[in-house]
């Protein structure tokens, strides 16, 4: 009789479909194993078409990877010389090779962050699952369990990564693991800003549910990069996984997690910081929307045109659906403001030089169009002529 472990190993091997990999298993040295996210995701039936493949090999990972790159014509990248880790990139595939830590595969897996990431598939001979910590049971119970507090502190980014896995997998943090994370939040300040940013981007691009909000508020993982001056309660009422709004949740979660100063310290781009500032500014005015002047409402849509779904997440239910419907209409003149003419045509028609005056005219025409007071090109040209006569410093 074939054992359950053998059946599971065969199923896992089949799901990973090594025939599609850019390398052959025979290319790997004896004692090699596939570990990490691809094994976990295959067991969860969440495997992407070209998953990142992480291999543990007994020795000389960098030398092996460099030689293999020449054989398969892939791009070789030395990731960490001290820890002997390298990467190959070929045809959309990413393959990482790391030297085994410790005397055997079990030693290596016991040094990892969470039990769901300490599952290996041995690739020597018949495929064989190796799960020394009980990660498969955690996958079944949808729990994130740290192997040890010491392992988290070996690389404190793992503290933030535990929260990220909760978001991505829709799992719960085991009670003791949650305590580990909470007690060591201050260690995150020792992590390079670029590494923090990459982890945060994965967090805000994942789906959140109500338990994620609750856990984050309990852990306060990013307090050092946040002034906690933001109305999370309003956003908490929304289900961020709602299909209609999921594409707008990236920025709304980012301004909840990080202040503008925190974004800067964590090396976010100037464009990302500007977008967050604009969203934050208008969210603070959200309870006074009905009192906005025409020009203020127009400016809201200028500032937030591409990011309006993020703003809509903060609106009251009675407003969110009609706003979203209008934003989805690319021809809505207020929700997608545009001038009836470009600056070159206006310069030619009225002899206006480039500069602030031309910018004011374009804004005026855009606003008149947004509120339906211009509907044809002839009307727009006449409005432009009158405005120019009344306001031109050149006449």
From TrEMBL:
Q: Which cofactor does it need?
A: Mg(2+)
Keywords attached to this Swiss-Prot or TrEMBL record, sorted alphabetically, are:
Magnesium, Metal-binding, Nucleotide-binding, Nucleotidyltransferase, RNA-binding, Transferase, tRNA processing, tRNA-binding
- Domain tRNA nucleotidyltransferase/poly(A) polymerase RNA and SrmB- binding, by residue range, is 170-223
**Poly A polymerase head domain: from which residue to which, for each copy?**
34-144
CDD domains noted in UniProt: NT_ClassII-CCAase
Q: Gene3D superfamilies, alphabetically?
A: Beta Polymerase, domain 2, cca-adding enzyme, domain 2
The record's GO molecular-function terms, alphabetically, read: metal ion binding; nucleotide binding; nucleotidyltransferase activity; tRNA binding
InterPro entries given in the database record? NT_sf, PolA_pol_head_dom, PolyA_RNA-bd, tRNA_CCA-adding_enzyme
Pfam families reported in the protein's UniProt record: PolyA_pol, PolyA_pol_RNAbd
What biological process terms from GO does the record include? tRNA processing
**Per the similarity annotation, which family is this?**
Belongs to the tRNA nucleotidyltransferase/poly(A) polymerase family.
The protein's name in its UniProt record:
tRNA nucleotidyltransferase/poly(A) polymerase
* Origin species: Prochlorococcus marinus (strain NATL2A)
């Amino acid at each position: 009789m074939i054992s359950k472990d053998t059946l599971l190993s065969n199923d896992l091997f089949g799901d990973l479909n090594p025939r599609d990999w850019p390398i052959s298993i025979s290319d790997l040295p004896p004692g090699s194993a596939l570990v990490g996210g691809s094994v976990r995701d295959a067991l969860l039936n969440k495997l992407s078409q070209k998953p990142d493949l992480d291999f543990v090999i007994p020795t000389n990972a960098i030398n092996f990877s460099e030689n293999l790159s020449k054989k398969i014509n892939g791009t070789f990248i030395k990731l960490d010389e001290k820890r002997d880790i390298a990467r190959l990139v070929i045809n959309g595939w990413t393959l990482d090779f790391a030297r085994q830590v410790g005397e055997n595969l079990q030693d290596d897996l016991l040094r990892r962050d969470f039990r769901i990431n300490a599952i290996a598939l041995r690739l020597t001979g018949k495929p064989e699952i190796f799960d020394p910590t009980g990660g498969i049971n955690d996958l079944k119970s949808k729990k994130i369990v740290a192997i040890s507090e010491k392992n988290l502190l070996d690389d404190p980014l793992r503290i933030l990564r535990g929260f990220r896995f909760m978001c991505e997998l829709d799992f719960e943090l085991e009670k003791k693991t949650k305590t580990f994370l909470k007690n060591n939040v201050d260690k995150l300040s020792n992590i390079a800003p670029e590494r923090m940013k990459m982890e945060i981007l994965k967090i805000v691009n994942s789906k959140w549910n109500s338990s994620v909000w609750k856990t984050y508020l309990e852990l306060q993982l990013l307090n050092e990069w946040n002034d906690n001056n933001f109305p999370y309660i309003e956003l908490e009422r929304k289900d961020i996984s709602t299909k209609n709004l999921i594409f707008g949740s990236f920025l709304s979660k980012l301004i909840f997690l990080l202040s503008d100063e925190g974004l800067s310290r964590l090396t976010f781009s100037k464009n990302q910081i500007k977008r967050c500032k604009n969203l934050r500014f208008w969210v603070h005015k959200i309870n006074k929307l009905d009192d906005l002047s025409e020009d203020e409402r127009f400016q809201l849509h200028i500032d937030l045109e591409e990011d309006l779904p993020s703003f809509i997440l903060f609106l009251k239910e009675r407003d969110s659906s009609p706003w979203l419907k209008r934003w989805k209409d690319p021809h809505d003149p207020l929700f997608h403001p545009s001038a009836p003419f470009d600056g070159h045509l206006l310069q030619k028609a009225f002899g206006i030089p480039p500069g602030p005056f031309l910018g004011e005219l374009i804004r005026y025409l855009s606003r008149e169009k947004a509120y339906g007071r211009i509907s044809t090109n002839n009307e727009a040209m006449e409005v432009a002529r009158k405005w120019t006569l009344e306001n031109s410093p050149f006449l």
